[in-house]
Amino acid sequence: MEKTPIIEVQHITKRFKGLTAVKDVSFSIREGAITGMIGPNGAGKSTTFNMICGYYPPTEGKIFFRGQDITDKKAYEYTKMKIARTFQIMKPLKNLSVLENVVASCYFGHAAAKSEHEARERAMDVLQFTGLYEKRHILSKDMGTPDQKRLEMARALATKPEMLFLDENMAGLNPAETEAAIELIREINRSGVTIFLIEHIMQAVVSLCEEVIVLHHGEKIAEGTPEQVMNDPYVMEVYLGKKEGSHA
Amino acid sequence: MNEKIQAVRVYRRNLTIVLGLILLIFCLIPVFVKSPYILNIFILVFYMSTLSMAWNLLGGMTGQNSLGHAAYMGLGAYVSCLFITKAHVNPWVSAVLGMVVVGLVAGIIFFPCFILRGPYFTLVSIAFGEALRQFIINSTFFGRASGIGLPFKRGDSFLDFRFAGKEPYYYIGLVMVILIYLLMKKIERSRMGYALRTIREDEDAAAAIGINPIRYKIMAVVVSAMVAALVGFFYASYTRYIDPELMIQAKSTESVLPAVVGGAAYVEGPLVGGLIMIPLSEFLRAKYSAILPGINMLLYAVALLAVIRFRPTGILGWYMHSGLKKTIDTKILKKPPVEVLEAVELDKRRGKEA
Amino acid sequence: MSIFLQACVNGLLMGGFYSLMGMGQNVIFGVMKIVNFCHGEMLMVGMYLTYVLSTTFGLDPYLCVPLVAILMFCLGAVIQHTLITPSLGTKSFTNLLFLTVGLGLLLSNGALVLFGSEYRTIPTTYSQTYISLGPVNLALPRLISFGVLIVISVVLFAFLKYTKTGKQIRAVSQNPVGAEVVGINTKRIYILTYGIGTALAGVAGALLTGFYTIFPTAGASFGFRALIVVVVGGLGSIPGAFFAGIFLGLLETMVALFISPSYSDLIVFITFIVILVVRQLIIIRRK
Fold this sequence. Notes:
The complex is a heterotrimer. Chain A is of the alpha/beta class. Chain A has helices spanning 45-52, 98-106, 116-130, 145-157, 175-190, 202-208, 226-230, 233-246; strands at residues 7-16, 19-29, 34-38, 60-65, 68-69, 83-85, 163-167, 194-198, 211-216, 219-224. Chain A has a domain at 1-75 and 192-248: Rossmann fold, CATH 3.40.50. In chain A, 35% of the residues lie in helices and 24% in strands. In chain A, strand 1 (7-16) and strand 2 (19-29) form a beta hairpin. The N and C termini of chain A lie far apart (46 Å). By secondary structure, chain B is mostly helical. Chain B has 15 helices and two strands. Chain B has helices at residues 2-32, 36-61, 69-87, 91-113, 119-137, 167-189, 191-201, 203-208, 213-239, 249-262, 269-288, 295-310, 314-320, 323-333, 338-353; strands at residues 148-149, 241-242. In chain B, helix 2 (36-61) packs antiparallel against helix 9. Chain B starts with a helix and ends with a helix. Chain C is mostly helical. Chain C has helices at 2-32, 39-57, 61-88, 93-115, 140-162, 164-174, 176-181, 186-208, 220-233, 238-258, 264-286; strands spanning 130-133, 136-139. Chain C has a two-stranded antiparallel sheet. The termini of chain C are far apart. Chains in contact: A-B, B-C.
């Protein structure tokens, strides 16, 4: 008997003014694992992601977190439930220092810091962990893309999540930076955080994920281990056919 | 480690001395300056800076540009005056009542408005201010356009907040500025301050870490309006007479200028801007307005445009990255590097915990 | 009944000015996403320009309109180039807001310095001419102004809709980055937009001089009403601005007629707040 999945998505559908972005998608995320979602541009990955994170409600379907229905929860209620997310388009608090960015996160969520001292101390730990400690006094807008991506993760981690959603955290990184990011994600996962990520970079998904879900045209077309998915004839057709397009 | 602790101690001591000296100068001004005109300018600086700090909590810290702060100030003045004249409540109690009423009104009015983002919020704040002023002009209870005066009695009385000279108002104004400054400083470093600044930078990012943007924006508007109401009470007690002119749009603009000129990103911005812009404006008014009406505001506008155009982060924004600050920090205050400060702070806390 | 009709017509004629002001504000806000808080002062500058032109050169106020439009366009272009465009780079909405507020202070006090605070009018031979239309009397200057307003609205609409430059302006207002990518010079469009916006305000001012007194703060009430028009009429919509202006003019005169003239401002502002909030609620619901 398998135990309850940490996240269970049941038949979610999202329609925007007649356009169906996501159609009847169901899957579940195993506690403690790293699960990835891939698919060509416009496959509905981000829409699915945003629905699970409470950004907008699904038109139909339900989302469960440890068996509890969270479909109608607001985005700001998620960190209380030990769920955190990052944004594909980074949203650093531009005019605040890196440290302040993380301190802000420490003040909220299920383990909100009670005092400024506690918040700062915890922020320091998170910065050490994510390798941003040396840059803590730089304004976040003055950092490069790799560091801003790290900061996104640091801000999410500072809310002490048990479930972390990463939205294309490696887009725009060079191979060395990608390698470092993969290492960091593994590290986070080893510390007991379940991870769900959307990624374009195949290398990252294959080396990180235990399970992969493939979306295409808003529908789930495959799921399984990376090997299973990569050998799926339909996935190969979709991906190889689209390969030129997605890199244009 | 010991010399680090020593360095921090020296820095703290120097900082205390410098701040103490500044405070002492302000305390001694009325002792040496007897001119009511000059004292009046200082009192003006105190309450306008306080009003500007109230604005800055909303504008600078939360990123919600209000252009209706004269309305909160005016409403605060009206409500506390009405408690004094109609219900014969003690002025100090009336001040608190005024703040509570204005806080409630602001919270209720802006509850539906906070779904509005960006410029819409500014527009609503203007419309709210104008609507309130029109309401007062049309209301007999509020004394219509002719306003209300506070009862005039002989003799000074602290309990009644009524003085003949300017010195008492000077000191009370000074205390008000300092208290509100400390409050703002406290808010800035608290959970609320981080929430507000996160909202300013990005509302979606704020929601993602667990901040309910509407809740915190309402908290900000309520606190801000209450401080403005306090300023209104102070103003009414000082001038002993108020009318709806207090709430005109231009006054709201004036309340923002010290923050923008001083640097809206800093809690100290309104103080610096107020200390520079208000004496400047008064000086220009005294010197030129009789000869050529409007020239004072014209020069004032030029100064404002120059700051925004060439120093977009305000005077403090410029100072924070200037050589002047470096010189002051290293030569006068002997400030140790940030790493040293952090290390000592961390060490001290570990010691406390152990 | 005739009072009611008269009020309707007056509201309509006044509403035309709000429309014109709103269209100018709308173009600026639509393209640069900044609220031009000196829009009313631009109207006032247009009034004084007309005053100067007609008193020194003896021009008829209505003949001044094209001249005023050109001069105001230049003024707007210069302001945009020297002040607003550089500040757009800082991406600070607060700064942009107070930049235009500061400009407003500069202009109204500049007028005070140059012309003093006295009320001025431009007398014309026809300023007291009325045309009777059944029970309704129409002052000729108001009627001419309204005619000109309609023509300008139609021309502006056609300009934005059909000309290449108009299409570029709309492209920039939809997506500045995208417009830049396809080779549109956004800085030029910004200058053009702000120029057009100020020219429209100036024209409104010139047309007003026929029946309105000229003083340094004459523009203030028009300035805020222009904002109301933009919000109520919808961003980027010229017909929307036109009808919202008319609606506002009618609302004002109706309140003045049925309730009390002193309540008209109060009702206008409250209506504005209500419309704004309801509109936003509808948008959220739709999402």
